[in-house]
Amino acid sequence: MNPLFSVSNDVVIRALGYVQRVKKDNCAHSSSSENVLHLDFDHSLWIPSTDPAIRTANFMSKLLANANGSLDAFPDELFYALVRNNVHGNTSIFGSAIAFEPEVFGGNNDIQPEKFVSQPVVSLIDGYWTYPYFDCGGGEIWMVTYSSPIFFRSFDNDSIAFKGAATIDIDMTDLDINQCDKDSATGNNYQTKIDLFRGTHLCQETTKCEKIAGKGFTTGAYMCVCLPRYYFPDKNAEIKAFSGKDLETYYRSETSTENPEGNLFRCMPCARGCETCVDDSPCLYQSSDSLRLTMMALILLNITIMCCLSVATFIYRKVLVIKTASPAFLQLMCLGGVLMCVEFFTLYPEISVVVCSIRIWLWHVGFTVMYGSLIIKTWRISVIFTAGAQKRVKLPDQALFKRFAFIFVVAICIILGWNFASPPYIDVLVPDDRLKAFICMYSVWEFAVLGVEDLFLLYGGYLCFTVRKAPAHFNESKHITWSIYNAVILGTFMAVML
Prior knowledge:
Elements (H helix, E strand, L loop, with lengths): L8 H13 L29 H16 L9 H12 L5 E8 L27 E2 L3 E2 L7 E12 L6 E12 L35 E5 L10 E5 L3 E2 L9 E3 H9 L15 E2 L19 H27 L4 H4 L3 H16 L10 H34 L10 H25 L3 E5 L7 E5 L1 H24 L10 H21 L1
Antiparallel strand pairs: 1-5, 2-4, 3-4, 4-5, 6-7, 7-9, 8-10, 11-12
Helix pairs in contact: 5-7, 7-8, 8-9, 8-10, 10-11
């Protein structure tokens, strides 16, 4: 309910339909209240226009006092001149009238003794406002009438009696009906004094109501323009908006059976990633499907190979070459490789902060598991074969697992610190063809973590150099070097391609 008016929203909607139906050619030529709009308007809008009626009423009251309650001595032209003067000079006043009680004319014209009497004076609050009504057979317009009473003070008993009324008819045709929603920008101006019809537009949820000024006291004086990220379905239309008059005619007509929440008069959604658009053209850069399928096939092949290697390592774990290479760490390497490969699948769903965070965890945890296992067992070989012949070093798998656990915990703490201190965010990349691409941004933490991982790989390269003369069953330096090259070169290539 509008705080300015004591009327329900249903009544306002019915009133809108009535305003839409009542026209010059179908109004009721009668004295009944059939053409009355029973709404309590805020009359403060028309207070300046009431002054002629109040002045006329006070003038007639003074005239009656001087003439002892009878106006027979005054010519009719005087009263016509008064009401004509009320209308002239004020475009909002359509008509004016003076009504008298029967005894004011044709009564006793005897001259009474002169005496001093005070004249009753009326003010704005003494008058009466009618409901807005359509003036059939007269002006054929919507109007509202203000009546100011004419009083006479009796000489006999000093009582005040009602003798008539001075009226003005205020034209409402220039008053716009604003059916759009109220917003914070609405001020206390001419139009907002009569905001009874606010929020009664029929724009759908994909559109926004915009008022059309200067349409007068009629329904449908608005346009339904498309919201951001929606476009007007008719590409050839000169005005990219739905007419409020069309919506009012369609949905408020007596023969309409459609629900205003139907699919008509709706804008169409833009393509994903578009802020504004005129059609359904894409706004996001489209990757090559063939390239994506090729890379997906290669990644699935790598995962399959690593799973097969892990199973083979378990089956042949007692074979000398497998046993000397620590089967448990070989399987950890396969697990880390699978995690790093799975990270590439996060490039396919719609990008989000959660997806960006998952990429961090899959790639860097997989890197830690894979290369941590590889380098920690290479470190054991380096310690054993560089300690010298006189010193016996015993480093079982349990001891290596403790050192691996330390590396793993440090890596987890770094990734947690990264996510809490500087979580990833989504940025928009706009290439030369104006199509946008959403990318994950990781701040300086990404370079810091990559730097630590590069140092870790360089340390692995150093260990490979120290064990280059180890026996054949223990010498994996050449293969470890290849894996380091693969991590740098192949990883960079795939990141650029995807």
